[in-house]
Amino acid sequence: MDIFAQQLVNGLVLGSIYALVALGYTMVYGILELINFAHGEVTMIGAMVALTVIGVLAGVAPDLPGVLVVLGGILVAIPACMLLAFGIEKIAYRPLRKAPRLAPLITAIGVSIILQNLAMLIWGRQYVSFPEILPTTKFEVFGAHISLLQIAIVVLALTIMACLWLLVERTRLGRAMRATAQSREVAELMGVNVDRVISATFIIGAAIAAIAGVMVSAYYGLAHYYMGFMLGLKAFSAAVLGGIGNIAGAMLGGLLLGVIEALGAGYIGDITGGFLGSHYQDVFAFFVLIGVLVFRPSGLLGERVANRA
Amino acid sequence: MHSSKLALSVVSLTLAISIAGCGNKAETGSNVIKIGSVAPLTGPQTHIGKDNENGARLAVDEINAKGLELGGKKVSLELLGEDDQAEPKTATIVAQKLVDAGVVAVIGHLNSGTSIPASKIYHDAGIPQISPSATAVAYTAQGYQTAYRVMANDAQQGKALGQFAVGKMAAKKIAIIDDRTAYGQGLADEFEKAAKAAGGEIVAHEFTNDRATDFSAILTSIKGRTPDLIFFGGMDPQGGPMAKQMKSLGLTAKLLGGDGLQNVNFMKLAGADAEGVIASSPGLPIDSMPGGPAFRKRFEAKYGAIQVYAPYAYDAVYALVDAMKRANSAEPAKVLAELPKTDLQGVSGPVKFDAKGDTTGGAVTLYEVKGGKWQVLETIK
Q1: Do A3 and B221 touch (CB under 8 A)?
Q2: Interface with chain A: mutation pick from B218, B222, B264, highest number of A CBs within 10 Å
Q3: N or C: which terminus of chain B carries fewer CB neighbours within 10 A?
Q4: Residues 6+ positions from B143 with CB-CB distance below 8 Å
């Protein structure tokens, strides 16, 4: 029982990070039907920028509480990522908005490679370690060890999701976003500044990605120029699992994928009698993804969008 | 269509290079003997690669200063340094380049992943290769009579670790994690064999990969088996976070690893949770080597601080020249006939080879993190 509870905790923490990154994929897809493959790299840049700031802050003011130092890092990383995403959209995607859909997709992959190499040039190939400045308080619940950091990650992730939901459902910008997602032309005719809405979507997604990036590096204690790739892939899968284009779906998909992965890695050996080991962790997660898509091609909460364009 | 064109151009390029290479082939009667040295001289391992080359260069300079006579003729050695970028593909290119340049032997390469593909080229050319630092078992297991190494291999290291875990650390229930790379898996398998033979019980063998950062799921499942020791076959980018996650999951088992963990970067990544972690490294700490302190003085006067493997590159050159002296020739075939008889007191310890080309004098040293530093626990010979 305690093992199961622990795996659930492991999965929920991982899942809430996936969910945050997945939001960025799903929001952009909802509006542009573009899979923004550079989003994982935006997360990585967020982590790297925050780590740099944290390193400087911890050096300049060693007496500052760790939480404030990390907060400082986040506060710099968010605008940095917002600026980056704004730039990417403006330079790489906007000129291609009328091009066939494959063109911006390839561009997105290109941007992702450029960002990876840029990060490698700036921060090097080495793994950058996260300074140990956060409190390491732990609690035991049902035999599972839960750290303060894990609780903070899950609570912060849920808060961000709630805020985003309010933004989309209750504000003028949110209404403009939903309108643009339904039909760009009609929204434009109704006086919505579509360009601005699209920029805003990228920027909001990037801000959330920045926070997720800091979470990942604080949780695992490291950052690396390559970290955005796998994270992006997993988050994208989470978005597809939940139904890409659907915000609630991204949240659900993220949490679910995290839990499936943890339980899969933990129990796959026992279930198959040792035939498949824990190195099939990722295979297991993607197997579930394929299984869901066979029966529900548009994801768990997705609507049919195939004939919309 | 496209690939055949590519193959054609590669073939013609190789041809062009080898023809060009013929021009500067050393005549056998010449007084200069060319020796190759290959290590990554660009990229993240630059400092270690340059260290190897400097170790070899120090030996070459010393031998030249003392004067070397082969077959009644005064000869001098020339070291040709090449950069393999730690890339298997580049390794074969520079290996061919050295063969074409007429080297009689090669000291290198630094990594197992580069030494193995290059060894075929040296074998086909019939020239001896002595690696200072490649530890993968496969390197000498190919049946090439040209491949030698002066450092204990992964099998010897894994065996020492397995015996140490059950013996000195008194571990009864052991869990193993490996990263499924040639290095990690090889080390973990040898560890498992030795630990079982010594009477330890393997309660779990879990797997990860060399890109992973999250081990909480496998560690949790291991926790359910209540081991008192966890062995990790892999490198520091995984080992660091693993040490952290063990602590945060409340695992009390000790973490034991190979030379992939025994470095400064591991301590940076694991932070305070590195404390108490034990890892091995082939060879001796420089100051415990028989010729260590004196070597350090000579080396540092010329090149600055020693990184890691310089003493082994140095010994490799001496082992080679020793064989040349006995053969009274620098001809590769004659040197190869003498190399198995090597019995040399090197800086790093005794240099002797077994039938495969592995060193028989290789030691393994265990280190523990104490007070934020790797401290020597003991050396197993």
Answers
A1: yes
A2: B218
A3: N
A4: none
